[in-house]
Amino acid sequence: MSFTPRTPWQDRSVVVTGGTRGIGRGIAELFARQGAAVALTGRDAEAAGKVADDLARTTGGRVCGLGVDLRDPEAIEAMAAAVERRHGHLDVLCANAGIFPEKPLREMTAADIDEVLQVNLRGSMLAVRACLPAMERAGHGRIVLTSSITGPTTGFPGWSHYGASKAGQLGFLRGAALELAPHRITVNAVLPGNIRTEGLDAMGEDYLRQMTASIPLGRLGGTADIAQAALFLASDEAAFITGQTLTIDGGQTLPESLDALTTTG
Length: 265
Known about the structure:
Elements: E1 13-17, H1 22-34, E2 37-42, H2 45-59, E3 62-67, H3 73-87, E4 92-95, H4 110-138, E5 141-146, H5 160-180, E6 185-192, H6 198-201, H7 205-213, H8 223-233, E7 245-248, H9 259-262
Parallel strand pairs: 1-2, 1-4, 2-3, 4-5, 5-6, 6-7
Helix pairs in contact: 1-2, 1-8, 3-4, 4-5
């Protein structure tokens, strides 16, 4: 079965992990507004349900919430099965869930490392694996990983374990893209820069000002900036794109130094 154009999105089933807040919520909202059937996940089932109800009300779309701990392989498998039963098929996985606790390397414990890698890297891999049978039955699929500029492109003190997990996602996607291409399943990633979310706001005003000053476009990104990219990579128009990464950072990774920003314009 070939992946023939079927958009608009009314007959597409989308899973967004980590969809209760931040970038994940923005992705879930956009897909719902486009008419897709959306299942968003979070560790807290009650919170996921409340967010889903809110998005269904504000978008007029079909949204459900599922409680899923991405450290638990059985829970992830159950998630994929539940979505396929509910929607009849599973077409798109946005593997977005991630954590970014700050911890200097000298203070980092094995447990700190394990937690970040389990959620960000292992959780993404397990989510992809769990969704494969449904996508293979459908004869097509789109997988979009939320990586980051931190790790693959840049580094930041206190987030070496986070950076390692995000760089690891890109190594995974290239191998996965090759394995899944014969099944007409594409695997791509978005690499957000500094996006205005609850997590970024928690870093404080000084951090926000510093980060804004480092972005050539002069503003922090919004969740909609990432959601639009995910929507494109999940679309029929992106059918010939796989194993690729898309950096969405307002030009933050372009300057050689801050001097490059003060001599332009």
